[in-house]
Design a protein that fits this description.
The structure is a single chain. By secondary structure, this protein is α/β, with parallel strands linked by helices. The protein is about 35% helix and about 15% strand. The chain has two domains: about 5-125, Enolase-like, domain 1; about 135-385, Enolase-like C-terminal domain (TIM Barrel). It is built from twelve helices and eleven strands. Strand 7, helix 8 (about 245-255) and strand 8 (about 260) form a beta-alpha-beta unit. Helix 7 runs parallel beside helix 8 and helix 9 runs parallel beside helix 10 (about 295-310). The site of oxaloacetate ion (OAA) has 8 residues, from loops.
C-alpha cells in the first residue's frame, strides 16, 4: 500500500462551557485524511484522524514536519515485512530528526497521523479497528463492549443546581451508570453543594461519581478538598494538581484514601513513567487517563501499557481521556478498564457511532471497517469534504 495524498484541515469543536482552568470558546482540532492507492469497490481507501479535545489544532506541525517526512520517505519504509502498512514504522519516519523531550509540542500532530494510519491499516484488512489491534498487538480475544462513563457537569453561565441534576439524570436515562462533574471552578462550599446534588441523583451512591479539577489546585487546596470529599467514597478524584507536579500527587495519595485519576495531560511514555515513578500512584486503586490521540497515538500508548505492566499495573486501571471512537477500539482490543464519553459535547469529532447504544454503562465499538467514522454521519460529511 502507498499513501498517495494527505489532506489536513482545522475545525471548531467549541462551546460555552468551562472547567476550573479553561473555557472552550476557541477550542478547535485538526482533521486529516490519508488517501491510499488501494481501491475497494471503485473507491480509494482513506484513513481518517483527528485530535482529541483539550489541546488546540496541530495543523502547522503536521504540514511543516510530519507529513513532509512521510511524503519524502521511501514507500517501503512505511511497510512491515509482509508489505502491509505499518503504523509503527511510519511513526519512526515522522519522528526522524526530533530530539527527545518537549513532547506536548508535537505529540498531538503525530497522534493525528497515527490514528489515520491505524484506520487505514484496519480498512485494508477489511476489519474493525478493535479486531486489527487485538490481532496485531493484543491476545486476539478483544472485549465485546467497554465500560463508559458520562463526563459533563461543567460550569456554564446561569447553570443552576437543578440544571446540573437534570444533566446528570439525562446521562442515566441514556444508559450510563457512572458520571463525572467538574469541581475547582467555585469555592469549596459551593462545590460540596454541587457534589451532593449530583450524589442525590445517583441515589446517594458516591461511588458512581467522579470529580475533575483539571489541574487547578495547589497542595493545600488539594488536601483541603480531599479531606472534605473522602467521605463520599467517590469513583475518583481527577487531575487534582498540575499534571507535572508529581510530588503534589504523591503527597495527596498519602492523605486521600479513595481512588485518584490523572494523565490526560501527559503526552509521552517518559511523562507517564515519571508519574508512576514519582507520583505515588497506587496500582490497587488509582487510574491512568493518558489519551492515545493526544500523546503520539497508539504506537506510543502501547509503550505506556508495557511500562505500566512492568510496574505491576493492570491495563484495567487505564481509562483514557477524550471520549472518542479511537480509544473505544483500543479499550476493547487491549482490555482497558473503560473509556470516557461526553454525550453531546465536542461535536462533530467526539463520541461514538450514531447507532451506538449505551446499555448498563457499556458500549461496543461497532463493526464498520477501521475506526468506523463513516458511521458518524455529520463528522463523516466533514471528513469527506477534506479530500473531495
Ligand atoms: O474539561 C476538559 O478539558 C476535559 C477533561 O478534563 C476530561 O475529559 O477529563
Ligand atoms: Mg479531566
Amino acid at each position: 500500500m502507498r499513501i498517495v495524498s494527505a489532506h489536513v484541515g482545522t475545525i471548531p469543536i467549541s462551546s460555552s462551557m468551562r472547567n476550573a482552568y479553561i473555557d472552550f470558546s476557541r477550542m478547535d482540532c485538526t482533521i486529516l485524511a490519508l488517501v491510499s492507492d488501494v481501491v475497494v469497490d471503485g473507491r480509494p481507501l482513506v484513513g481518517y484522524g483527528f485530535n482529541s479535545n483539550g489541546r488546540y489544532n496541530a495543523t502547522a506541525i503536521l504540514n511543516e514536519r510530519m507529513l513532509p517526512r512521510l511524503r519524502e520517505a521511501a514507500p517501503e519504509d512505511l511497510l512491515d515485512e509482509n508489505g502491509e502498512l505499518s503504523p509503527a514504522r511510519a511513526w519512526d519516519v515522522m519522528m526522524r530528526n526530533e530530539k527527545p523531550g518537549g513532547h506536548g509540542e508535537r505529540s498531538v500532530a503525530v497522534g493525528v497521523v497515527d490514528m489515520a494510519l491505524h484506520d487505514l491499516a484496519a480498512k485494508a484488512a477489511g476489519v474493525p479497528l478493535y479486531r486489527w489491534i487485538s490481532d496485531h498487538y493484543g491476545d486476539g480475544d478483544p472485549d465485546g463492549d467497554v465500560f463508559v462513563y458520562a463526563a459533563g457537569g461543567y460550569y456554564a453561565p446561569g447553570k443552576t443546581l437543578e440544571d446540573l441534576q437534570d444533566e446528570m439524570r439525562g446521562f442515566l436515562d441514556a444508559g450510563y451508570e457512572v458520571v463525572k462533574m467538574k469541581i475547582g471552578g467555585a469555592d469549596l462550599s459551593e462545590d460540596l453543594r454541587r457534589i451532593e446534588a449530583v450524589i442525590d441523583v445517583l441515589g446517594g451512591d458516591g461511588s458512581r461519581l467522579m470529580v475533575d479539577v483539571n489541574g487547578k489546585f495547589d497542595l493545600r487546596t488539594a488536601l483541603e478538598y480531599g479531606r472534605a470529599i473522602d467521605r463520599y467514597g467517590l469513583f475518583w478524584y481527577e487531575e487534582v494538581g498540575d499534571p507535572l507536579d508529581y510530588a503534589l500527587n504523591a503527597t495527596l495519595s498519602e492523605d486521600y484514601r479513595n481512588p485518584i485519576a490523572t494523565g490526560e495531560n501527559l503526552f509521552s511514555l517518559q511523562d507517564a513513567r515519571n508519574l508512576i515513578r514519582y507520583g505515588g500512584m497506587r496500582p490497587d486503586r488509582d487510574f491512568v487517563q493518558v489519551d492515545p490521540a493526544l500523546s503520539y497515538g497508539l504506537t506510543e500508548y502501547r509503550r505506556v501499557l508495557d511500562m505500566l505492566a512492568r510496574h505491576g499495573w493492570s491495563s484495567r486501571r487505564c481509562i483514557p481521556h477524550g471520549g472518542h471512537q479511537f480509544s473505544l477500539h483500543i479499550a476493547a482490543a487491549l482490555k482497558l478498564g473503560g473509556n470516557e464519553s461526553y454525550p453531546g459535547e465536542f461535536q462533530p469529532t467526539g463520541g461514538f457511532a450514531d447507532e451506538a447504544v449505551v446499555t448498563r454503562g457499556r458500549v461496543a465499538p461497532g463493526d464498520l471497517p477501521g475506526i468506523g467514522l463513516e458511521g458518524k454521519a455529520k463528522f463523516y460529511e466533514v471528513l469527506r469534504g477534506l479530500h473531495g
